[in-house]
Design a protein that fits this description.
It is built from 10 helices and 10 strands. Strands 4, 5, 6, 7, 8 and 10 form a 6-stranded mixed β-sheet that branches. A 4-stranded antiparallel β-sheet has the order 2-1-3-9. The longest helix is centred in the middle third of the chain and has 17 residues. It is globular, with a radius of gyration of 21 Å. About 9% of the residues have low confidence.
C-alpha cells in the first residue's frame, strides 16, 4: 500500500481527518472547477453552489476519516501523485499555531502555555485541544489553523496537548477588529428616486436580527447558511444604502461564532453581492 495512504488511514483511525497534498504543499483539485487552483483554493465554492462536482471538494473540505473514501478508486491516482499528508485540525477538535521562524517560537514560549509541539522546516506547530476560526498572519510569521483549514502532518510531536488558551483566541479577535476598522464595506445606493422601505429603523433591525438568528441556529452546512443569509439580506436591504458597517459587522460576528473565518465571511459577502449585482 502507498506509504502516504497508510499514514492517512492511521490518522483517520485516530479521529484526525487526513487529505493528500501535491507538490508545494497545495491541495489537489478534485474536480474540473478546482483543477490548477482555478477556484482559488476555496472549498466554500461548493457550499455556495459554484461547484457541482459530486466528489469531495479539495483542501480542508476533502479531509475525511472514512477509509472507504480514502481508498476509493477516484482517490487512487491522487495518492500516487501525492507528496505529503495533511489533516483538518478543526475536524479533530484541535487548533494548530503555526510558528514560522525562531522569533515566533520564542514569542510563544514567553507568552503561551506549553502544549504538544511538532518541529517544522522553519519553526514549530503548537497544538492545542479546542477549535476556533482559522486566520493567517495574526502576528508576524504566526498563522492559526483550525476550522476550515489544514495543516501538514509532520508527526505526533512531543508534550501533552493543552486546552486552547484565551490568548490564542484573542489573536483572531484583534485581527478582525483591525481589519474591520481599516476595510470599510460600502453598499451602492438606489438610483435617484428609488423607494426605501427602511426609513423606520424597526424594519431593518428586524431583518438583521432574523439573519443573525438564522446563522446562529444553523446545525449543519454552516457556510451554505451564511452565504444564503448574506444573499437574503442584500436582496432585501442592499440597494438603498441603509446597511451600515455596524449591521454587516453583526452578521460577520454571528458567522465567525459558528466557525467561519474573517476571510470566508468577506468572500461569501462578495459572492452574494456579485450574484445580485449590487
Amino acid at each position: 500500500m502507498n506509504t502516504l495512504l497508510q499514514t492517512a488511514l492511521e490518522l483517520a483511525a485516530n479521529g484526525m481527518p487526513p487529505l493528500p497534498l501535491r507538490r508545494g504543499k497545495r491541495p489537489f483539485g478534485n474536480c474540473p472547477q478546482c483543477t490548477g487552483s482555478a477556484c482559488g483554493d476555496r472549498p466554500h465554492m461548493k457550499a455556495a453552489g459554484l461547484c457541482q462536482c459530486p466528489r469531495p471538494c479539495h483542501a480542508w473540505a476533502a479531509a475525511t476519516t472514512d477509509p472507504a473514501v480514502l481508498t476509493s478508486p477516484e482517490w487512487a491516482p491522487v495518492w500516487r501523485q501525492a507528496v505529503a499528508v495533511a489533516y483538518h485540525p478543526g475536524g479533530a477538535g484541535l487548533t494548530v499555531l503555526d510558528l514560522d521562524n525562531p522569533a515566533a517560537v520564542a514569542w510563544a514560549r514567553e507568552t503561551l502555555p506549553s502544549t504538544r509541539t511538532v518541529s517544522t522546516t522553519r519553526g514549530e506547530h503548537w497544538i492545542y485541544r479546542g477549535t476556533m476560526p482559522s486566520a493567517n498572519r495574526v502576528r508576524p510569521d504566526v498563522d492559526i489553523k483550525s476550522l476550515m483549514s489544514y495543516a501538514r502532518w509532520l508527526g505526533r510531536g512531543t508534550g501533552t496537548t493543552a486546552p486552547l488558551p484565551d490568548a490564542v483566541r484573542a489573536l483572531v479577535a484583534v485581527k478582525a477588529t483591525v481589519r474591520s476598522a481599516s476595510h470599510a464595506i460600502t453598499v451602492p445606493a438606489l438610483a435617484e428616486g428609488g423607494e426605501c422601505r427602511h426609513r423606520t429603523p424597526v424594519y431593518l433591525e428586524r431583518g438583521i436580527a432574523m439573519a443573525e438568528q438564522r446563522i446562529t441556529q444553523a446545525r449543519s452546512a454552516v457556510h451554505t447558511t451564511v452565504y444564503r443569509t448574506f444573499l437574503a439580506v442584500l436582496s432585501a436591504h442592499g440597494r438603498c444604502g441603509c446597511l451600515t458597517d455596524t449591521h454587516i459587522a453583526r452578521l460577520f460576528t454571528a458567522a465567525q461564532a459558528k466557525g467561519e473565518s474573517p476571510r470566508h465571511c468577506t468572500d461569501a459577502w462578495t459572492n452574494a453581492r456579485t450574484a445580485l449585482g449590487v
